[in-house]
Specification:
4 copies of one chain form a homotetramer. Chain A is mostly helical. Chain A has one helix spanning 2-79. Chain A is rod-shaped, with a radius of gyration of 34 Å. Chains in contact: A-B, A-C, A-D, B-C, B-D, C-D.
Amino acid sequence: DVANEFQLQKESLTQKLQDTEDRNLSLEARLSALEQHEQSRQLEREAFRAHLRSLLQMLDGKIFELTELRDTLAKLIESS
Amino acid sequence: DVANEFQLQKESLTQKLQDTEDRNLSLEARLSALEQHEQSRQLEREAFRAHLRSLLQMLDGKIFELTELRDTLAKLIESS
Amino acid sequence: DVANEFQLQKESLTQKLQDTEDRNLSLEARLSALEQHEQSRQLEREAFRAHLRSLLQMLDGKIFELTELRDTLAKLIESS
Amino acid sequence: DVANEFQLQKESLTQKLQDTEDRNLSLEARLSALEQHEQSRQLEREAFRAHLRSLLQMLDGKIFELTELRDTLAKLIESS
Protein backbone atom coordinates (compact mmCIF):
# COMPACT_ATOMS: atom_id res chain seq x y z
CA ASP A 1 0.00 0.00 0.00
CA VAL A 2 0.85 3.64 -0.23
CA ALA A 3 2.21 3.97 3.35
CA ASN A 4 4.54 1.01 2.75
CA GLU A 5 5.68 2.42 -0.57
CA PHE A 6 6.52 5.80 1.03
CA GLN A 7 8.41 4.04 3.84
CA LEU A 8 10.61 2.14 1.35
CA GLN A 9 11.38 5.29 -0.62
CA LYS A 10 12.34 7.10 2.59
CA GLU A 11 14.67 4.30 3.69
CA SER A 12 16.34 4.18 0.28
CA LEU A 13 16.91 7.95 0.27
CA THR A 14 18.26 7.87 3.86
CA GLN A 15 20.74 5.10 2.90
CA LYS A 16 21.92 6.99 -0.22
CA LEU A 17 22.37 10.14 1.84
CA GLN A 18 24.42 8.21 4.44
CA ASP A 19 26.69 6.74 1.71
CA THR A 20 27.22 10.12 0.11
CA GLU A 21 28.06 11.74 3.45
CA ASP A 22 30.54 8.90 4.19
CA ARG A 23 32.21 9.46 0.81
CA ASN A 24 32.25 13.19 1.63
CA LEU A 25 34.09 12.60 4.90
CA SER A 26 36.59 10.36 3.16
CA LEU A 27 37.22 12.95 0.45
CA GLU A 28 37.66 15.71 3.03
CA ALA A 29 40.16 13.54 4.92
CA ARG A 30 42.21 12.89 1.73
CA LEU A 31 42.08 16.56 0.78
CA SER A 32 43.26 17.64 4.21
CA ALA A 33 46.10 15.07 4.16
CA LEU A 34 47.16 16.23 0.68
CA GLU A 35 47.10 19.88 1.73
CA GLN A 36 49.23 19.14 4.78
CA HIS A 37 51.67 17.14 2.61
CA GLU A 38 51.80 20.01 0.14
CA GLN A 39 52.47 22.48 2.96
CA SER A 40 55.32 20.42 4.43
CA ARG A 41 56.72 19.99 0.87
CA GLN A 42 56.62 23.77 0.53
CA LEU A 43 58.58 24.20 3.79
CA GLU A 44 61.13 21.60 2.58
CA ARG A 45 61.51 23.47 -0.71
CA GLU A 46 62.10 26.74 1.12
CA ALA A 47 64.69 25.14 3.44
CA PHE A 48 66.36 23.56 0.39
CA ARG A 49 66.45 26.88 -1.43
CA ALA A 50 67.85 28.59 1.68
CA HIS A 51 70.63 25.95 1.78
CA LEU A 52 71.35 26.52 -1.91
CA ARG A 53 71.50 30.29 -1.37
CA SER A 54 73.98 29.83 1.46
CA LEU A 55 76.08 27.56 -0.81
CA LEU A 56 75.91 30.24 -3.52
CA GLN A 57 77.28 32.81 -1.06
CA MET A 58 80.09 30.43 -0.11
CA LEU A 59 80.87 29.93 -3.81
CA ASP A 60 80.93 33.74 -4.23
CA GLY A 61 83.45 33.88 -1.37
CA LYS A 62 85.67 31.22 -2.95
CA ILE A 63 85.59 32.97 -6.35
CA PHE A 64 86.50 36.26 -4.64
CA GLU A 65 89.43 34.61 -2.82
CA LEU A 66 90.63 32.93 -6.04
CA THR A 67 90.53 36.35 -7.75
CA GLU A 68 92.62 37.87 -4.94
CA LEU A 69 95.11 35.01 -5.30
CA ARG A 70 95.17 35.60 -9.07
CA ASP A 71 95.90 39.33 -8.51
CA THR A 72 98.71 38.51 -6.05
CA LEU A 73 100.24 36.12 -8.63
CA ALA A 74 99.92 38.77 -11.36
CA LYS A 75 101.70 41.39 -9.21
CA LEU A 76 104.39 38.87 -8.25
CA ILE A 77 105.09 38.04 -11.93
CA GLU A 78 105.24 41.70 -12.96
CA SER A 79 107.49 42.69 -10.02
CA SER A 80 110.03 39.93 -10.72
CA ASP B 1 -2.37 14.43 6.84
CA VAL B 2 0.01 11.46 6.68
CA ALA B 3 0.47 11.50 2.88
CA ASN B 4 1.43 15.15 3.00
CA GLU B 5 3.82 14.54 5.88
CA PHE B 6 5.60 11.74 3.93
CA GLN B 7 5.80 13.92 0.83
CA LEU B 8 7.53 16.71 2.80
CA GLN B 9 10.04 14.29 4.37
CA LYS B 10 10.84 12.83 0.92
CA GLU B 11 11.46 16.29 -0.57
CA SER B 12 13.68 17.27 2.34
CA LEU B 13 15.77 14.07 1.99
CA THR B 14 16.05 14.50 -1.79
CA GLN B 15 17.29 18.08 -1.33
CA LYS B 16 19.87 17.05 1.30
CA LEU B 17 21.09 14.25 -0.99
CA GLN B 18 21.42 16.69 -3.88
CA ASP B 19 23.44 19.12 -1.72
CA THR B 20 25.73 16.37 -0.44
CA GLU B 21 26.34 15.08 -4.00
CA ASP B 22 27.12 18.63 -5.15
CA ARG B 23 29.63 19.01 -2.33
CA ASN B 24 31.07 15.62 -3.33
CA LEU B 25 31.65 16.74 -6.92
CA SER B 26 33.27 19.92 -5.70
CA LEU B 27 35.58 18.01 -3.35
CA GLU B 28 36.56 15.55 -6.12
CA ALA B 29 37.35 18.45 -8.42
CA ARG B 30 39.58 20.10 -5.79
CA LEU B 31 41.30 16.78 -5.04
CA SER B 32 41.97 16.14 -8.70
CA ALA B 33 43.33 19.66 -9.19
CA LEU B 34 45.57 19.28 -6.14
CA GLU B 35 46.88 15.91 -7.34
CA GLN B 36 47.68 17.34 -10.76
CA HIS B 37 49.41 20.32 -9.13
CA GLU B 38 51.38 17.93 -6.91
CA GLN B 39 52.38 15.85 -9.95
CA SER B 40 53.57 18.87 -11.92
CA ARG B 41 55.48 20.06 -8.81
CA GLN B 42 57.13 16.64 -8.64
CA LEU B 43 58.22 16.96 -12.30
CA GLU B 44 59.57 20.46 -11.61
CA ARG B 45 61.51 19.14 -8.60
CA GLU B 46 63.02 16.38 -10.71
CA ALA B 47 63.99 18.82 -13.48
CA PHE B 48 65.49 21.14 -10.84
CA ARG B 49 67.47 18.29 -9.27
CA ALA B 50 68.69 17.21 -12.73
CA HIS B 51 69.91 20.80 -13.36
CA LEU B 52 71.66 20.82 -9.98
CA ARG B 53 73.34 17.47 -10.72
CA SER B 54 74.59 18.83 -14.05
CA LEU B 55 75.94 21.94 -12.22
CA LEU B 56 77.63 19.61 -9.71
CA GLN B 57 79.37 17.77 -12.55
CA MET B 58 80.51 21.10 -14.02
CA LEU B 59 81.84 22.09 -10.58
CA ASP B 60 83.68 18.75 -10.42
CA GLY B 61 85.23 19.56 -13.79
CA LYS B 62 86.35 23.02 -12.64
CA ILE B 63 87.88 21.60 -9.42
CA PHE B 64 89.70 18.97 -11.49
CA GLU B 65 91.06 21.63 -13.87
CA LEU B 66 92.16 23.86 -10.94
CA THR B 67 93.96 20.84 -9.46
CA GLU B 68 95.79 20.24 -12.77
CA LEU B 69 96.74 23.95 -12.88
CA ARG B 70 97.98 23.66 -9.26
CA ASP B 71 100.12 20.60 -10.19
CA THR B 72 101.59 22.45 -13.19
CA LEU B 73 102.48 25.40 -10.94
CA ALA B 74 104.04 23.03 -8.35
CA LYS B 75 106.21 21.36 -11.04
CA LEU B 76 107.21 24.76 -12.48
CA ILE B 77 108.32 26.01 -9.03
CA GLU B 78 110.31 22.85 -8.29
CA SER B 79 111.97 22.77 -11.75
CA SER B 80 113.13 26.41 -11.52
CA ASP C 1 178.45 44.48 -12.69
CA VAL C 2 176.00 46.89 -14.21
CA ALA C 3 175.19 44.80 -17.30
CA ASN C 4 174.41 41.79 -15.12
CA GLU C 5 172.33 43.92 -12.80
CA PHE C 6 170.24 45.23 -15.75
CA GLN C 7 169.84 41.69 -17.13
CA LEU C 8 168.45 40.47 -13.77
CA GLN C 9 166.02 43.40 -13.53
CA LYS C 10 164.80 42.76 -17.08
CA GLU C 11 164.24 39.07 -16.41
CA SER C 12 162.38 39.84 -13.20
CA LEU C 13 160.13 42.37 -14.98
CA THR C 14 159.49 39.95 -17.88
CA GLN C 15 158.50 37.22 -15.41
CA LYS C 16 156.17 39.58 -13.52
CA LEU C 17 154.60 40.70 -16.80
CA GLN C 18 154.09 37.08 -17.84
CA ASP C 19 152.42 36.24 -14.49
CA THR C 20 150.16 39.30 -14.69
CA GLU C 21 149.14 38.48 -18.27
CA ASP C 22 148.39 34.88 -17.24
CA ARG C 23 146.21 36.14 -14.37
CA ASN C 24 144.55 38.49 -16.90
CA LEU C 25 143.64 35.60 -19.22
CA SER C 26 142.28 33.61 -16.30
CA LEU C 27 140.15 36.56 -15.11
CA GLU C 28 138.82 37.14 -18.62
CA ALA C 29 137.87 33.47 -18.90
CA ARG C 30 135.99 33.56 -15.55
CA LEU C 31 134.28 36.82 -16.50
CA SER C 32 133.20 35.41 -19.86
CA ALA C 33 131.88 32.21 -18.20
CA LEU C 34 130.00 34.24 -15.60
CA GLU C 35 128.48 36.47 -18.29
CA GLN C 36 127.34 33.45 -20.29
CA HIS C 37 125.91 31.86 -17.13
CA GLU C 38 124.12 35.13 -16.33
CA GLN C 39 122.73 35.27 -19.88
CA SER C 40 121.40 31.73 -19.79
CA ARG C 41 119.93 32.46 -16.31
CA GLN C 42 118.18 35.47 -17.84
CA LEU C 43 116.69 33.30 -20.60
CA GLU C 44 115.54 30.77 -17.98
CA ARG C 45 113.93 33.55 -15.95
CA GLU C 46 112.08 34.81 -19.01
CA ALA C 47 110.87 31.30 -19.93
CA PHE C 48 109.78 30.80 -16.30
CA ARG C 49 107.89 34.11 -16.29
CA ALA C 50 106.24 33.22 -19.62
CA HIS C 51 105.09 29.90 -18.09
CA LEU C 52 103.72 31.75 -15.06
CA ARG C 53 101.87 34.20 -17.30
CA SER C 54 100.30 31.33 -19.22
CA LEU C 55 99.25 29.74 -15.87
CA LEU C 56 97.78 33.09 -14.83
CA GLN C 57 95.68 33.18 -18.01
CA MET C 58 94.50 29.62 -17.33
CA LEU C 59 93.57 30.67 -13.76
CA ASP C 60 91.66 33.64 -15.22
CA GLY C 61 89.78 31.19 -17.44
CA LYS C 62 88.89 28.92 -14.51
CA ILE C 63 87.68 31.87 -12.39
CA PHE C 64 85.57 33.06 -15.35
CA GLU C 65 84.05 29.58 -15.75
CA LEU C 66 83.35 29.31 -12.00
CA THR C 67 81.62 32.70 -12.17
CA GLU C 68 79.43 31.50 -15.07
CA LEU C 69 78.57 28.36 -13.08
CA ARG C 70 77.74 30.56 -10.07
CA ASP C 71 75.42 32.71 -12.23
CA THR C 72 73.68 29.61 -13.60
CA LEU C 73 73.15 28.35 -10.02
CA ALA C 74 71.81 31.77 -8.95
CA LYS C 75 69.31 31.84 -11.85
CA LEU C 76 68.26 28.24 -11.13
CA ILE C 77 67.58 29.05 -7.46
CA GLU C 78 65.62 32.19 -8.30
CA SER C 79 63.53 30.45 -11.03
CA SER C 80 62.54 27.52 -8.78
CA ASP D 1 174.84 52.90 -26.03
CA VAL D 2 174.13 49.69 -24.16
CA ALA D 3 173.18 51.37 -20.85
CA ASN D 4 170.68 53.54 -22.65
CA GLU D 5 169.28 50.57 -24.54
CA PHE D 6 168.76 48.66 -21.27
CA GLN D 7 167.14 51.68 -19.69
CA LEU D 8 164.63 51.97 -22.55
CA GLN D 9 163.78 48.25 -22.41
CA LYS D 10 163.27 48.47 -18.64
CA GLU D 11 160.96 51.46 -18.99
CA SER D 12 158.95 49.77 -21.72
CA LEU D 13 158.56 46.61 -19.63
CA THR D 14 157.59 48.63 -16.52
CA GLN D 15 154.93 50.45 -18.54
CA LYS D 16 153.52 47.23 -19.97
CA LEU D 17 153.45 45.71 -16.48
CA GLN D 18 151.61 48.76 -15.16
CA ASP D 19 149.03 48.58 -17.96
CA THR D 20 148.47 44.87 -17.41
CA GLU D 21 148.07 45.34 -13.66
CA ASP D 22 145.57 48.15 -14.29
CA ARG D 23 143.58 45.89 -16.61
CA ASN D 24 143.79 43.22 -13.90
CA LEU D 25 142.29 45.52 -11.29
CA SER D 26 139.55 46.55 -13.67
CA LEU D 27 138.72 42.89 -14.48
CA GLU D 28 138.70 41.97 -10.78
CA ALA D 29 136.31 44.85 -10.06
CA ARG D 30 133.92 43.75 -12.85
CA LEU D 31 134.13 40.12 -11.67
CA SER D 32 133.36 41.11 -8.11
CA ALA D 33 130.43 43.31 -9.19
CA LEU D 34 129.05 40.50 -11.37
CA GLU D 35 129.37 37.99 -8.52
CA GLN D 36 127.55 40.32 -6.14
CA HIS D 37 124.83 40.93 -8.76
CA GLU D 38 124.53 37.16 -9.25
CA GLN D 39 124.28 36.62 -5.50
CA SER D 40 121.56 39.24 -5.08
CA ARG D 41 119.75 37.74 -8.10
CA GLN D 42 119.94 34.36 -6.38
CA LEU D 43 118.37 35.82 -3.22
CA GLU D 44 115.60 37.45 -5.32
CA ARG D 45 114.93 34.12 -7.05
CA GLU D 46 114.64 32.36 -3.70
CA ALA D 47 112.29 35.04 -2.31
CA PHE D 48 110.22 34.79 -5.53
CA ARG D 49 110.05 31.00 -5.27
CA ALA D 50 109.04 31.28 -1.59
CA HIS D 51 106.21 33.66 -2.60
CA LEU D 52 105.10 31.23 -5.31
CA ARG D 53 105.13 28.32 -2.83
CA SER D 54 102.98 30.32 -0.43
CA LEU D 55 100.55 31.11 -3.31
CA LEU D 56 100.52 27.39 -4.18
CA GLN D 57 99.50 26.55 -0.59
CA MET D 58 96.75 29.18 -0.75
CA LEU D 59 95.55 27.64 -4.04
CA ASP D 60 95.56 24.22 -2.34
CA GLY D 61 93.38 25.69 0.41
CA LYS D 62 90.91 27.18 -2.09
CA ILE D 63 90.67 23.88 -4.01
CA PHE D 64 90.07 22.05 -0.71
CA GLU D 65 87.32 24.51 0.25
CA LEU D 66 85.68 24.24 -3.22
CA THR D 67 85.73 20.44 -2.82
CA GLU D 68 84.00 20.71 0.58
CA LEU D 69 81.39 23.03 -0.99
CA ARG D 70 80.93 20.50 -3.82
CA ASP D 71 80.40 17.69 -1.29
CA THR D 72 77.84 19.78 0.64
CA LEU D 73 75.97 20.46 -2.63
CA ALA D 74 76.07 16.75 -3.53
CA LYS D 75 74.63 15.76 -0.12
CA LEU D 76 71.96 18.48 -0.36
CA ILE D 77 70.86 17.23 -3.82
CA GLU D 78 70.75 13.59 -2.70
CA SER D 79 68.84 14.40 0.55
CA SER D 80 66.15 16.44 -1.25
